[in-house]
């Protein structure tokens, strides 16, 4: 008999926190679930630790990849191996509250295939104050979304268009997805290396809406060894190309037809123009980095070539007419100025609050 929920735990060198993660899973008030742990060639003690847990609980299945699939590849492998009606990702560093599964199921509806909850952040001691502030500035889902549990596809499109690169839903640990959504819309995009979760949420929610459970039922751990931290440190330019790819899919992917219809009928946002602008920004950003760091030029050129081979329309950004180039550069300068002003205001508010609290 198939379980109601498949809990997917993709692992890679996660020995430091995997016990805490698995303990939170096995302490659930709802028990009809399987745990699919897919290890991506860990070289630490991860496998040894999870084998101990599997020997004590038959709901745990361990799969060891014969070769490293990478972050997105391993996530999609988890989906392929799962059997439940619902798929609940929990990352090796994260935890969930004892009633997380129970509450998510209670709030789910037959019409909506994506449920998410509020989450807390667990900051490890090696996380800088600057990084803490960056996470604390994350958008508040309560403020960004309508004050209701069920958010329609139309309402999600409204929110998304106003802030297209903001992950309102959060990390996979704070979400649960019905299997049929993966069957209909596909899995995580393997061409994205950082915001693959955001893109999948957008792909599903712009068509089906979301269920927002306004309870803190998940905890996302922030530390310097996480994939997110490593990507931002060593793959900064490649990470920036993710937004360009998302803009391309908004404009041309069949799954975003509903979003395109919304933009035509309700806004003045031209998604094709958004894609060209993001692609141009990515290209000139790469040229600028290569000029300052010649040793990075080959890596930057290769990243651009790999993406434009898969997304030929993006390559056209290099050939914009002079008017468009000037227009986009001016928009970029205005955007940078707004961002600087916003950061300064946030810093001032933080100092004022600190003074008041002290």
Write the layout of secondary structure elements.
Blueprint: E1 5-11, H1 18-26, E2 33-39, H2 46-56, E3 60-64, H3 70-81, E4 86-89, E5 95-96, H4 100-107, E6 114-123, H5 129-136, H6 141-144, E7 150-151, H7 153-162, E8 175-178, H8 179-185, H9 196-208, E9 210-222, H10 227-234, H11 236-252, H12 257-266, H13 271-292, H14 297-310, H15 312-315, H16 322-357
Helical proportion? 40-55%
Could you say what the CATH topology of the largest domain is called? Spore Coat Polysaccharide Biosynthesis Protein SpsA, Chain A
Radius of gyration: 21 Å
In CATH, what is the class of the largest domain?
Answer: Alpha Beta
Tell me what the structure shows.
The protein contains 16 helices and nine strands. The chain is α/β, with parallel strands linked by helices and 358 residues long. The chain is globular, with a radius of gyration of 21 Å. Helix 11 runs parallel beside helix 14. It folds into three domains: 229 residues, Spore Coat Polysaccharide Biosynthesis Protein SpsA, Chain A (Alpha-Beta Complex), CATH 3.90.550.10; 86 residues; 38 residues. The relative contact order is 0.10. About 6% of the residues have low confidence. Strands 1, 2, 3, 4, 5, 6, 7, 8 and 9 form a nine-stranded mixed beta sheet that branches.
């Amino acid at each position: 008999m198939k379980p109601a929920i498949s809990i997917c735990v993709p692992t890679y060198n996660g020995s430091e926190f995997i016990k805490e993660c698995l303990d939170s899973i096995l302490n659930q008030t709802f028990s009809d679930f399987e745990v699919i742990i897919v290890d991506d060639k860990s070289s630490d003690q991860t496998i040894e630790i999870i084998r101990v847990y599997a020997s004590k609980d038959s709901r745990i299945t361990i799969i060891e990849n014969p070769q490293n699939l990478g972050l997105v590849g391993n996530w999609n492998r988890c989906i392929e191996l799962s059997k439940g009606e619902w798929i609940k990702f929990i990352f090796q560093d994260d935890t969930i509250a004892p009633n997380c599964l129970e509450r998510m199921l209670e709030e789910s509806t037959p019409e909506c295939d994506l449920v998410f909850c509020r989450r807390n952040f667990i900051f490890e001691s090696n996380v800088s104050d600057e990084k803490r502030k960056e996470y604390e500035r994350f958008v508040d889902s309560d403020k960004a979304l309508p004050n209701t549990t069920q958010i329609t596809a139309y309402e999600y499109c409204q929110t998304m268009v106003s802030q297209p690169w903001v992950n309102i839903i959060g990390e996979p640990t704070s979400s649960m997805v019905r299997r049929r959504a993966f069957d209909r819309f596909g899995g995580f995009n393997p061409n994205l290396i950082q915001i693959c979760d955001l893109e999948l949420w957008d792909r599903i929610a712009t068509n089906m809406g979301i269920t927002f459970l306004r309870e803190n039922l998940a905890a996302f751990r922030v530390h310097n060894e996480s994939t997110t931290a490593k990507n931002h440190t060593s793959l900064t330019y490649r990470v920036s190309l993710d937004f360009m790819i998302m803009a391309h899919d908004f404009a041309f992917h069949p799954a975003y037809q509903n979003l395109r219809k919304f933009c035509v009928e309700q806004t003045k946002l031209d998604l094709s123009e958004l894609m060209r602008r993001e692609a141009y920004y990515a290209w000139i950003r790469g040229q600028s980095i290569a000029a300052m760091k010649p040793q990075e030029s080959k890596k930057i050129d290769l990243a651009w070539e790999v993406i434009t081979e898969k997304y030929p329309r993006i390559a056209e950004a290099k050939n914009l007419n002079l008017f468009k180039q000037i227009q986009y550069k001016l928009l970029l300068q205005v955007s940078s100025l707004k961002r600087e002003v916003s950061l300064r205001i946030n810093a001032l508010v933080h100092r004022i609050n600190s003074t008041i609290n002290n």
